[in-house]
What we know:
The complex is a heterodimer of chains A (138) and B (337).
Chain A: H1 7-12, H2 14-19, E1 21-25, E2 31-32, E3 48-52, E4 56-66, H3 75-81, E5 83-91, E6 96-102, E7 114-125, E8 128-137
Parallel strand pairs in A: 6-8
Antiparallel strand pairs in A: 1-2, 1-3, 4-5, 4-7, 5-6, 7-8
Chain B: E1 4-11, E2 15-18, H1 19-26, E3 36-39, H2 46-59, E4 70-74, H3 86-93, E5 100-104, H4 110-124, E6 131-137, H5 146-150, E7 154-161, E8 167-176, H6 198-220, E9 229-231, H7 239-246, H8 251-255, H9 260-263, H10 270-278, E10 287-294, E11 298-306, H11 316-321, E12 324-325, H12 328-336
Parallel strand pairs in B: 2-12, 4-5, 4-6, 9-10
Antiparallel strand pairs in B: 1-7, 1-8, 2-3, 6-7, 8-11, 10-11
Amino acid sequence: xxxxxxxxxxxxxxxxxxxxxxxxxxxxxxxxxxxxxxxxxxxxxxxxxxxxxxxxxxxxxxxxxxxxxxxxxxxxxxxxxxxxxxxxxxxxxxxxxxxxxxxxxxxxxxxxxxxxxxxxxxxxxxxxxxxxxxxxxx
Amino acid sequence: xxxxxxxxxxxxxxxxxxxxxxxxxxxxxxxxxxxxxxxxxxxxxxxxxxxxxxxxxxxxxxxxxxxxxxxxxxxxxxxxxxxxxxxxxxxxxxxxxxxxxxxxxxxxxxxxxxxxxxxxxxxxxxxxxxxxxxxxxxxxxxxxxxxxxxxxxxxxxxxxxxxxxxxxxxxxxxxxxxxxxxxxxxxxxxxxxxxxxxxxxxxxxxxxxxxxxxxxxxxxxxxxxxxxxxxxxxxxxxxxxxxxxxxxxxxxxxxxxxxxxxxxxxxxxxxxxxxxxxxxxxxxxxxxxxxxxxxxxxxxxxxxxxxxxxxxxxxxxxxxxxxxxxxxxxxxxxxxx
Lengths: 138, 337
């Protein structure tokens, strides 16, 4: 099953996808990312202000996606790489997000390792390049 | 009004391939003076490299991204032929929405062309304070072509403004002449071509370089020895020395800004990376000559004076040494993507 995201939906979320812009809850001050209609922490706040995330964090968990398990939009990527890692990253500011990981050797991936966001091509669909963030494992 | 370089940074992809790997895998290697080169991962392209270079510059800069008035992006390998490429970079860097944007894509002189373009926009628009120039390139050609063997990948970012910079742009000279058959790319082909006229290639380059350097030195009443460093076009690792010596420059003047031997031919980014490489050796009032060449042919020579000693030291050789070497088979996989 793929994770198709329409162009209009992708376009609306570009500040999140290109720059990791989150939102600070006006009620409890927690940082939400991705954006929510109601704060996922206090479950009351509906007023938010944009908040620039640092892109730094630690690896909370991870898995290795084998070639056969890759969604269709990552099929070419998986064919070339054979397999690729995906992780849950705990950002410094609090949110946990899912993203692809970049590492020279998968033996170097471990829970708790520091990671930092970097801007990459995510996939190409209908000849449109979808850019966004991946995380480099340090 | 003096236009100065205020800050700079660069991005070099982490993968490397050596001349030995080419010889082992392909049985031949034709890039002169290039021992290894930087290679993009499959999820990188000139725009991702441009964003990385820009982010690195802005992360430590005293100038906020919101204060930048103009962005110029230079690359001969933009992912999109129609659809703004620079808008992707501007969006990723969070630059202001009324930014003035320029894109330069038709020749490897894009880096130095961008310097002049950015300087001109700062001079002509009195309300403009800062201009960001990013050159990012990854030339490509057929696997048996000598242009491909030397083709590397990298990006450089330069912040320009009017006060407090390291290098002041003193003067420039330009020259063009219709010259054919050397390093070109048609719209229906993503690979660089060259008719293999090696002597003509170098004659053309020397013709243009001789004219722009001679004109600039005459205008400033200077000689070659008045310059601490000079950057020449780096389509291979030996070319800067061959051209520079004929124009009266010493190897010591040329060496500091010549990076192709370890990085490869990085097209539009090469002149700016050459400039960044030599900054660490500059003292106040040192002069630097930056030249560039776009086949077809156009050339520029730009003269800089050092206003203050650059504080930020970027160890390009160290970055290149930290890269991960890949096999020729892995390289072919990346090229096929």
